[in-house]
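User: Can you recover a sequence for this backbone? Please restate the input before giving your answer.

Assistant: Of course. Working from this structure:
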């Protein structure tokens, strides 16, 4: 997920809709029922301390790039300057990049986001999600779906 200016998102010619700013994000966690994901919320500091390594590393770990020869082509310094994206793996065994299917489940999600400064403009949160669904065709040629 990433945050982008509303004017850029809506097609303003002078703004880049792929400029994912941090907007001084200071707290982020996803609530799945009563469970917090990650169990210790992200609390980056984008000020002069540049203390946002957990958020940056989440791109590698939750996208299945950690300890593999697959880069995301975003350096640590670039992450702060227009590439602030966050990844959260919701699979039960934390293997979103795996070749096996996880048990399907239904739940309600809530996102808790806080900022250290007031937002300077209207911001859109862009969320990219992948779902694994099943489509079956039985012997009578009936198409069955789980969505």
């Amino acid at each position: 997920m990433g945050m982008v200016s509303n004017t850029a998102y809506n097609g303003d010619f002078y703004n880049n809709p792929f400029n994912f700013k941090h907007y001084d994000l200071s707290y982020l966690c996803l609530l799945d029922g009563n469970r917090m994901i990650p169990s210790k919320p992200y609390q980056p500091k984008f000020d002069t301390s540049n203390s946002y390594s957990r958020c940056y590393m989440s791109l590698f770990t939750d996208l299945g790039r950690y300890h593999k020869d697959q880069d995301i082509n975003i350096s640590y310094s670039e992450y702060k300057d227009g590439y602030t994206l966050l990844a959260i793996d919701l699979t039960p065994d934390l293997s979103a990049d795996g070749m096996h299917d996880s048990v399907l489940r239904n739940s309600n999600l809530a996102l808790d986001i806080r900022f250290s400064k007031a937002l300077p403009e209207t911001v859109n949160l862009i969320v990219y999600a992948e779902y694994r669904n099943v489509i079956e065709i039985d012997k009578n040629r009936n198409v069955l779906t789980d969505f």
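That completes the design. Helices lie at 6-9, 53-62, 76-80.
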